Amino acid sequence: MLYKRCGIGYIIGMKYRRCGRSGVLLPEISLGLWHNFGAGDDRVQNAAIIGRALELGICHFDLADNYGPPPGSAEERFGNLLQQEFAGYRDEMFISTKAGHLMWPGPYGDWGSRKHLIAGLDQSLRRLKLDYVDVFYHHRPDPDTPLEETIEALVQIVRSGKALYIGLSKYPAAAFNRACALLAEARVPCLLHQYRYNLLDRSCETGMLPATRDQGCGSIVFSPLAQGMLTGKYLNTPVLPAGSRAERSDSVFLDAAKVSADAARVATLQNLATEAGLPLTQLALRWLLQRGGVTSVLIGARTVEQLEDCAAATGQEALSDDLMNLLEKQ
Ligand SMILES: NC(=O)c1ccc[n+]([C@@H]2O[C@H](COP(=O)([O-])OP(=O)(O)OC[C@H]3O[C@@H](n4cnc5c(N)ncnc54)[C@H](OP(=O)(O)O)[C@@H]3O)[C@@H](O)[C@H]2O)c1
pTM here? Predict the structure, then answer.
């Protein structure tokens, strides 16, 4: 589905996909605020990214309580921007947050107890300055809390009106199937499953992706550019690009060692992209959009240019069967 217009301006070619068996449509490209929206990041730049996202039809914004750094600061930044610059657009936006990773000291500060989830969402709503979020996720499965307790807490949250829909993040297939059954029993179906999927990490293809499709849930896939490695920007450069995620000391999940461990695979993909006449970024995003079972591809962006670059992956013609077959073998 293609919308031509939204309140803030003209939408340039964004396509929308139905989220499983629900009433919700999500843009093919969604924007996550895990990085780049912390207390030390530039507020003006952040406002420009959100505004441009809306113009491009990227109306889904993904947060979590622990995004920053420091934890909580991405929700605070987004909440301030919403209140001060985008208040009129709340109903055009689909906003998610999550709880489950460590947020405060003591036994209730993380995981999946009713205590953690309900207190965590209340804190998020205060930071976001919202009465409700559109989706509330359990951010990671909890091996120790009975799944029934976690699911009852999620159902309670929807019934209380603090979230419209429930999502699960990084649930292995067996736990995901059990959780979906419990949610369905309570007539609060799981809207979305969120997990990592990119050309360097296809582990979801043997578990989470087919389970999500079989349950009739939407799937939103994160780190589609492997945190920037699948742009090719770390290839053929003796030093990490200044300001890049791998270079920044406040980014703990990507560093020089990880970049160098994946360099050979990225170089092979870069060669395939060059032969196909495409930037690697486009190849990586369009490949995902063409995989069966993906509802939305959840990107991150440090600049407006990066956002525009990623948004350009929507509405393009399909990659050829030959190219898809070559990528299948990587
Ligand atoms: N549920 C979970 O546990 C979980 C886990 C991880 C992520 N997520 C969600 O997924 C979202 C996206 O994850 P991600 O940030 O890892 O996604 P990503 O799209 O793989 O990486 C985004 C980063 O790639 C670089 N980049 C993007 N476009 C570029 C371009 N055109 N040219 C050059 N560099 C470009 C930028 O990094 P530089 O700073 O290097 O420029 C950008 O911050 C998160 O914000 C979060 O909402 C969820």
Answer: 0.96
